[in-house]
Design a protein that fits this description.
Helices cover about 25% and strands about 30% of the residues. By secondary structure, the chain is an alpha+beta fold. The protein has one domain: Gcn5-related N-acetyltransferase (GNAT) (Aminopeptidase), CATH 3.40.630. An 8-stranded mixed beta sheet has the order 1-2-3-4-5-6-8-7. α1 crosses α2. The protein is globular. The two termini are about 30 Å apart.
């Protein structure tokens, strides 16, 4: 089972929150959070109207993720139990790439800049280091998301590539996709 131990953590500003594994019972709240994140962030690929997974489908998906050893969904809850952050992971199932996990992260608009992203990223790295089959973590980030790029670099992620004009915004402008990666301790070479 791919789970993290639920834990209370404190942000630099003193706010207490809980980091834990997303469970099937969280499906409705996860769907709601994903729609909010898509509506309030320019840096997510999916737009709110493109997120079509029902709470029942999300519940089934979360059940499948829990049955794997190499995927995890990490959520952050505020003191009222509302989801304020979510990390989702995906493992490539092809034999030559299944040592790599890719993740996405979203933080509620009212919690951005609070240090929540750092805490969640630390937990993801900690968890990934315990999974024997994983050797590398990868992500994609919009080239103009300078704050996120700096955050990832602080945690050992290197820029590994660039896809030019990979994202097209509603106003017709384009943005490059930066591909970043970080070796886990068991990776023999990079």
């Amino acid at each position: 089972m791919a789970e993290i131990d639920a834990q209370k953590v404190k942000l630099a500003g003193g706010q207490e929150l809980v980091l834990r594994t997303a469970l099937p019972r969280d499906a409705w709240a996860v769907v709601d959070f994903r729609k909010h994140a898509a509506a309030t962030s320019r840096y997510l690929i999916a737009q709110p109207e493109e997120y079509h997974r029902s709470s029942w489908q999300e519940r089934s998906h979360l059940k499948r993720v829990l049955k794997t050893e190499d995927q995890v969904y990490i959520l952050a809850e505020d003191d009222k139990g509302d989801i304020i952050g979510l990390i989702t992971t995906q493992v490539f199932r092809r034999k030559r790439t299944r040592h790599i996990i890719e993740f996405g992260i979203a933080v509620h608009s009212s919690w951005r800049g609070s240090g929540l992203g750092s805490l969640m990223l630390e937990e993801l790295i900690r968890w990934a280091e315990t999974v024997p089959s994983l050797e590398k973590i990868e992500l994609h980030v919009h080239a103009n998301n300078v704050g996120a790029i700096k955050l990832y670099q602080r945690y050992g992620f290197d820029i590994e590539g660039r896809r030019k004009a990979a994202f097209k915004y509603d106003d017709g402008t384009y943005m490059d996709d930066i591909i970043m990666g970080r070796a886990l301790s068991r990776l023999k070479t990079l």
